[in-house]
Design brief:
Elements (H helix, E strand, L loop, with lengths): L30 E6 L4 E9 L2 E10 L7 H4 L4 H20 L4 E6 L1 H5 L3 H12 L3 E3 L2 H11 L10 E7 L4 E7 L8 H7 L13 E8 L3 H7 L6 H14 L5 H4 L8 E6 L1 H11 L6 H4 L3 E3 H21 L11 H14 L4 E5 L3 H13 L12
Parallel strand pairs: 1-4, 4-5, 6-9, 9-11
Antiparallel strand pairs: 1-2, 2-3, 6-7, 7-8, 10-11
Protein name: Ppx/GppA phosphatase
GO molecular function: pyrophosphatase activity
Amino acid sequence: MAPRRPAGADAFPTKTVEPFATRAAEDKPLYAALDLGTNSCRMLIARPAGSQFQVVDSFSKPVQLGHGLEASGRLSRPSMARTVHALQVCRRKLEAHKVVHMRLVATEACRRARNSRDFMRLIRRETGLPVEIIDAEEEARLAVISCAPLVSQRTEQLLVVDIGGGSTELVWIDLENVDPKERSRAIMRLGNGFGVPQPDGARVVDWISVPLGVATLRDQFEDVEDDQGRFALMSWHFEEMLADFAPYALAQTMREGFQIIGTSGTVTTVAASHLGLRRYDRTKVDGLTMTTAQIDRVIRDYLALGPEGRRADPRIGRERHALIMSGAAILQTLMRVWPTTRLSVADRGLREGLLYAQMVKDGVLAPDGMNGVA
């Protein structure tokens, strides 16, 4: 049975956060983070700037690495070739910026593929980049710490959701015993491990990596021709996969102070559509609060457009039109199941988590400013 929604559970501010770049710091070292996912290859190069970081270069390419993986269990040669080409572009950027500190990771597609070791050897041979495959828990931890600045000081129960191309990570965190001013920092410290006891009282109640993301969920239902029928089936199938997640399986009476943060291209696309942005603007999207009614309205508009309409809609974009409905099915399911009518939108995720983790480890981030929203 789903948890009940308490009175006041959605009482969170609509304040957006400041962008990553706070001020120039030309003397600071550069750091890089690369996320090789099921659908995209994305990289950020940044330098520390106060308690945040300043992005100096970025790269994003939809390589569709996981195309055909559901059927064959293997990464295809065309998918690997596209990905290697993208990684060669990343290598040139890293060399041009003379980046020394970097972490380059691959996620669900490479975790699942039978030929992933061969692919890692191919990457080393063709690009020289030290790409590593990380497990689902580390992926979830990195997504969580990237969202730390968005945690409200009034949050006692937090659900972080990262909708990826091949998997969706959900992490439920109890912050009730943490001093409100320390809650963002407490989230940062969870990067050391979900099972590591935290002296400040932050506790991971449960986490799950559902092996369904926007690409893998779409692939499972691509033979269903009816647009709305496919959407309903995807939503139902995703909810079935949550049965072993403790906050779903056990009835909970929630108090005030529940917050859900969503991070993914799906979430930011829905937010941009809600705002009516013709050109994407991160400063308007990151930290935005959306109501369930607003999310549902955008999704109804997407369904009314149909496949051809979504392809032509500039709010969705040509690169995301084929994936937006599977992502929307996941998002709508999560908002239906958990006890809130509001979602905090995060234009941040694995890459940002990788940058934060490296910089925190090296002690180059200022401690002040990581206090979350009031």
